[in-house]
Amino acid sequence: MALYRRYRLRIFALVLRILLDRCTAEEVLQDLFQRLWDHPEKYDSSKGELLSWLLTVARNISLDHKRKESRRASFYVYPDVETQVELASLTERRLDAETIHSVRQVLDTLPEEQRRVLELSYFEGLTHPELAETLGESLGTVKTRIRLGMQKLKHAMSLGLLQSK
Amino acid sequence: MNSNCEMQNADWDGLALGALPPQKAAPLVAHLRTGCDPCRVLFSQSQAVALALGASLPGQAPGQLVEDKLAAYVRKASVAPKPPPRQNNWAPWMLAAASLAFAAWIGYQQPVPVTVSIPQKIEIERVVDPNPELQKRIRELELSLAQKRPVEIIVAATPAAPVVQPEPVVVKVEDPEKDRQLSFYREKLQQLEAQYQSQQKLLAEAQQTKDKRIEQMTGRLAGLEVEAAAQRKILEDYRNAFRTIESIGMRQVELASVDRAAQNSSARALYSKQGGLLVVAHDLPKLPGQKCYQLWILRKGSPSIVSGGLIKLDSQGRGFLQSPPTPALNDATGFAITDEPVGGSVVARGHKLLFGAI
Description:
The structure holds two protein chains of two kinds. Chain A is an all-alpha fold.
């Protein structure tokens, strides 16, 4: 329960942002921590932070839930949650408060079109073609906006890392 | 480490955000699994941003009910461990059944207390009649043994009462699931502590390296700034000189040596009302440390001699002076160069070394 109390605000914020429904988000949150309780061996501390693991799994469950609810034609299930957890474990950088704060600040200052593609991609789970269709832009434009936005956020993270040291 | 991997330009941002369609994501994932370090680093940076995006939302508190439900779930899961896999070990049961049958038979024949011992810490004090209740108890025993619980059951009966009344069943639960989880978390804690210590050490080393690097870079930056300032000044001088040369109405005056101390030196002054003044001198003798060369403008108006500025000298005896337009140039009649104390003089007092009339 200590873990739940420690991470519930961040994880619930993510789940709620994706699902936009408090009741469903609470169900997903409960499901996530029950999974952790039932199968603690699925989280390997040597392969990354618990927060990264929780964020990855929470996003995956929430997006799956959303896709099933919306019955979207393109039901992408790749990468699956195991692959996503495996990929998340490659992240060597710690998600400390200062880094997160830096990213949040830069995100607020990004041009609207860059922020939108990043948010639609991460929180709505839209792929490049879906983003292009949703925004009425070309595939190249969508990719460029993502690249530029990500560049700025990476730069902010690097600065945040230097300052935190 | 393959620093020239062609996949370095792949869309790692898209993969980290989950924005790639499966057919495009799969080859990238497969490539990462090959252990390509440069690509793993690139992906790691993108992935860190993606995770930070997820963590960057302002915190939201779920309802208290979620915590209550979770607490209840944890309590329930602790009390009722998961059933172990089915085992085909019938030997203890056969023994138990035979013992019970024997005990029942003894109970009919002779009402003497009998103690029957069977494996798995089960003890049956006295058995009189194998009636349905007794069969029920046997099934309970079987179930308990399947769950590997140490169980103590006391069955009491008398010859006069063939039907066995339900007796309290004392169950001692050691909760192996809880122990297993405790052990698991203890091990995890130890791993985390070791990992933390290791990371602290790495962090301290990285900090030292970073400090040293910052110190080096700061020194280098200071040097570069000085050099850049000097270059900027030179560039500015050249720009001003060019401005003077290209200005309309530019005039030129040659200055010649008028003193033995000036040796074979010479100078040229270029000036105009809009472009200012530019003086270039050659072969100027090196002056003692407390002296410098100063240019004077001779004019019709009053005062008749005004300072035109100090001449900068390089190691090869070349002198250079550039100054913006000044009213004294409007009615200038000539130029002279003297040696003056360092810093220059308000009024010319040194030796007149070079002179040129307009």
